[in-house]
Amino acid sequence: MYLKLVAPDEAIPGSYWGDSEAGLRGDGLFARLDTPIHSILHEACHYICMTPERRAGLDKDAGGDDLEESAVCYLQVLLADELPGVGRDRLIADMDAWGYSFRLGNTRAWFEGDAEDARKWLLDHGVIDGDNRPTGLARG
Predict the structure, then answer these.
(1) Domain housing 110
(2) Domain count, the chain
(3) Does residue 106 sit in the same domain as residue 74?
(4) Which terminus of the chain is less hemmed in, N or C, by CB atoms within 10 Å?
(5) Phi/psi of residue 34, each to 5°?
(6) How far apart are the first and last CA of the chain?
(7) CA separation for the pair 43, 15 (Å, rounded)
(8) Cα separation of 5 and 25, whole Å?
């Protein structure tokens, strides 16, 4: 996967939501300088979590089921901790401001108290290790 920045005010290829939200097309993750970091991480995590077959035909809609979507959200929080100047607290606040919706009402409550199924999914697919650290591998 590669990141491609597009010009300001240019439509973002492969964007599901439009506006400034990141997009996926093939092996490309597309964004502008005004694209929110939560959106870039979310789409990157979709790419990491999808099957190779879905990656091969990827254009805009990552697909997947509800559990995979939860795994994507969980992974984006973990990856935020790997980025200088971002971190978990900022990403969780951004996710809540954007309108992510979880059963417990907010991202932190979900991540800390209701996301074991997402963590297990990532572990079972080799995306994180037993210490909750990203492995750097995409779902095989």
Answers:
(1) 66-124
(2) 2
(3) yes
(4) C
(5) -95, 5
(6) 14
(7) 9
(8) 13
Chain centroid offset of residue 56 CA: 18
Asked whether residue 130 is assigned to any structural domain, the reply reads no
Helices and strands per DSSP (H, E), number in the chain = 6, 3
- For the entire predicted model, the pTM comes to 0.95
Are 91 and 83 in contact by the 8 Å Cβ rule? The answer is no
Three-state SS across 84-129? CCCHHHHHHHHHHHHCCCCCCCCHHHHHHHCCHHHHHHHHHCCCEC
Please tell me whether residues 51 and 97 are part of one structural domain: no
Q: Does residue 137 belong to any structural domain of this protein?
A: no
Q: Per the domain annotation, does 25 fall within a domain? A: yes
pLDDT tens for each residue of 61-109 = 999 999 999 999 999 999 999 999 999 999 999 999 999 988 888 999 9
Residue 115 lies in a domain: yes
